[in-house]
Amino acid sequence: MAEVVQDPEWKIKLGKMIFYVTLAVGLWFFYWFAGIQCPC
């Protein structure tokens, strides 16, 4: 029964971690690409 309660929490934490990592990488790549496009 403990596993059934713990599983959704673990999935939510994993999902949030993946979401934030993807968001951070996306923002970093966007600024890096914008920096490449900028002549300065």
Q: How are the SSEs placed, and which strands pair?
A:
Elements: H1 2-37
In words, what does this structure look like?
The chain crosses the membrane at residues 17-34. Keywords: Membrane, Transmembrane, Transmembrane helix. The chain has one helix at residues 2-37. The radius of gyration is 17 Å and the shape is rod-shaped. The termini are far apart. The chain is 90% helix and 0% strand. The mean pLDDT is 83. The chain has 40 residues and is mainly α.
The ordered string of helix (H) and strand (E) elements is H
Largest sheet: none
Shape: rod-shaped
- Count the E strands: 0
Strand content: under 5%
Can you count the helices? 1
Terminal residue distance:
59 Å
What structural category arises from helix and sheet content? mainly alpha
Provide the low-confidence segments as ranges. Answer: none
What is the residue-averaged pLDDT? 83
What is the helical fraction, as a range of percent? over 70%
Global Rg: 17 Å
Transmembrane segments: 17-34
Keywords: Membrane, Transmembrane, Transmembrane helix
